[in-house]
Amino acid sequence: MLHAELLHLFRRRRVQVLLAVLALVPIAIVISLKFSGGPDGGEGPTFLNQVTNNGVFAALAALTISLPVFLPLAISIVAGDAIAGEASLGTLRYLLVRPAGRSRLLAVKAATIVAFCFAATLAVSVAGLATGSILFPVGRITTLSGDTLSLWAGIARIGGAAGLVSLTLLGLAAIALFASTLTNIPVGAMGATLGILILSGVLDAIPQLSGLHPWLFTHGWLSFADLLRTHVTWTAIENNLALQAGYVAVFASAAWARFTTRDILA
C-alpha cells in the first residue's frame, strides 16, 4: 500500500512540477550571481558572496532562501491535498474499502508526506550543489567559526543540513495533514496551513512576544546553520527538533482522531 501511494504521489504531474520549480530556485540564484559579476561582484548578503567564492555554498544559500516560502508552500500543497484531495475526487470511500482501515490509510498518507519533505529538500540542495559546482570554483569549506573543512567533510555537513531542514518541515506537514482531514476542499486545507505559517512568522518577528517565540514552529527553522560551525552547536538544533516532534505528535493525533470518526460521504 505504501509503495503504491509513493508511486501515485511522485507520478503526479503537479508533484513533478513542484519538485522542478524547487530545483529551479538554486539554479536561478547561481546563474544570477554568475552573470551579475561572479566572485568580484562583492554585493548582497554574506552567504551569497560565499557562493561566488565556493560553489558548494549554493546548496546552503538555496536552502536558506527556499525555507521561508518555497519549501513550505510545496509541503502545504502536497500535505493539504493528502485526504481532502481524495475526498474531492470521490476516491476516498473506495480507498477505505481496502481491509487496511482508516488508521493505516492515514499512516500511509503521512509516510508519503514525509517522503516528499525529504524529496523537496533534496531537489533544492542537489540542484544548488550541482549548479554552484559547475559555475563557480569549489574547494575547502570555510565554517561559520572561521576554520576550514575538507571538501567532502563540508559536503557531508551540507547533506546533514538538508536532512535537518526536511525534519524541520514535519511540524508544518502535520498541521497540513490535520487541516486536510477537516475539509473536502484541498485549497481550503492548503490556505489554512499557509495562514498558520504566516501567522507564526509574524508573531516570531514581534520582539514584544519573545516569550512566545520558543513555542512557534517556525522559530528554529534556520538552526541547521549551526552544523556549519567547526564544533557543531547542538542546543538550537535539538530544541527545534523537539518542538517539531511536539507539533507532529499533537497534530498527527488530532488528524487521526478526526479521520477515524469522520463521515465519509464521497
Helix fraction by DSSP (H/I, runs of at least 4): 55-70%
Contiguous uncertain segments of 5+ residues: none
Strand order of the largest sheet: 1-2
Mean pLDDT metric: 87
**Biggest sheet overview:** 2 strands, antiparallel
N-to-C span:
21 Å
Radius of gyration computed on alpha carbons:
20 Å
**Count of separate DSSP helical elements:** 12
Query: Globular, elongated, flat, extended or rod-shaped: what is the shape?
Result: globular
Number of DSSP strand runs: 2
Can you walk through the features of this model?
- The chain is mostly helical and 266 residues long.
- The protein has one domain.
- It contains 12 helices and 2 strands.
- The chain has helices at residues 2-11, 13-35, 46-53, 57-66, 70-81, 84-89, 92-95, 101-135, 151-168, 170-181, 186-204, 235-261, and strands at residues 141-142, 148-149.
- α10 runs parallel beside α12.
- The radius of gyration is 20 Å and the shape is globular.
- It starts with a helix and ends in a 5-residue tail after the last helix.
- The mean pLDDT is 87.
Give a summary of the structure in a few sentences:
69% of the residues lie in helices and 2% in strands. The chain is mostly helical and 266 residues long.
Task: Give the secondary structure arrangement, pairings included.
Elements: H1 2-11, H2 13-35, H3 46-53, H4 57-66, H5 70-81, H6 84-89, H7 92-95, H8 101-135, E1 141-142, E2 148-149, H9 151-168, H10 170-181, H11 186-204, H12 235-261
Antiparallel strand pairs: 1-2
Helix pairs in contact: 1-8, 2-4, 2-5, 2-8, 3-4, 4-8, 5-8, 5-10, 5-11, 8-9, 8-10, 10-11, 10-12
